[in-house]
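Folding Problem: From Residues to Backbone Shape
Fields: amino acid sequence; protein backbone structure tokens
RECORD BEGINS BELOW THIS LINE
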Amino acid sequence: MSMDPVQVMSGQVSPEEMKAPLSPVTASSNGDSRGTWEVRGEVFDQDHLGITTKPIPVSVRRVRKVEGGIFFPKPENAVTIAVSSRVLFRTEREQKVYEQRGVEEYLKYQVEHENEPFAPGPAFAFVKALETVNAHLRELYPDSEELFDIVLVTYNHAHVGVRLINTINYHNLFIERFCMTGGTSPIGYLKAWQTNLYLSADADKVREALAEGIAAATMFMADNQTEVSETQLRVAFDGDAVLFSDESERIFKAHGLDKFFEHERENENTLLDHGPLKSFLEALGKLQKKFYARGHRLDCPIRTYLVTARSAASSGIRALKTLRAWGLETDEALFLAGAPKGPMLEKIRPHIYFDDQMFHIEGAAEMGTVAAHVPYGIAQKHPHIKIPKVGK
């Protein structure tokens, strides 16, 4: 299966299909609850929250009231999540217009269709889960600015902003901060926002962000996305080259498994260096502790997972000691000793899973998990060779 993010999210619409009416896409597979909205006396079924030619009613936006007012937290207080429009929404048709007709026709198309909402993309359920956590935080801490703050980052021209805002209001998302860069790199803006995580479909921009010390990943759409929790944010991490550095992975690539085990035993009490997403786990942990302080450890609306190919007895202890020394923890730790990760992720049903190896990203996507590739470390130079299935 092709795992190029542009192909997965934008490459399945032919020129003929662009001329044909679009079919509704249900939002249930993205974790959005089914239901209806009443707007101007009309009823809009949430089963039809997808690509549609039905215009958005002018007054579809519902008032979003927050106890004590609407908060716009300062970047230094918030956990800032930057998402690109191509991972938050499905933009296959529009991408084809851009590729086949050029930028001017693309902009014209967007303006002509600005009252038609985009369907949910792979990051949609994740963003909805962030908003759910925010709602719980506001109940416990009405005046706190320690919340998730979502920034929509897009290379689009400002002309496309109307359609994006219409879509956000249509799906009742609380996203007020936009960066529309008109084709230029967004990395400088990400640093200004003090971004804690950047999700994009553009692998080059993700690498650029990582080089600047920003936690980032390239997001992929699962083939048949599983339903995820609507009440609890679930985030799963690989260990080496994601939470930790690729130090141990380098030993394995250069000298094999036996030398890797020997190295880990000898360095059991030596902390691993940090990886590119350690800071994001730290940010999640900061918000988790706010729930723990109010007696909500067991029913915390944030749950984290370590899903690693490491073996528990042979090499797992170093990973756990490192997390403990950092003052961090994951709610669950799965040491798979090289077993496939896909089946475990299918049981966890995370909103997002981070891994540095495309082999594991493919396995997760095949099992319905939305996965994000972290292009960091030695695995990018020595990719895992996937063993062909029997009979192929």
Remarks:
- The first strand starts at residue 36 and ends at 39.
- The first helix runs from residue 5 to 10.
- The radius of gyration is 21 Å.
- DSSP finds 15 helices and 14 strands in the chain.
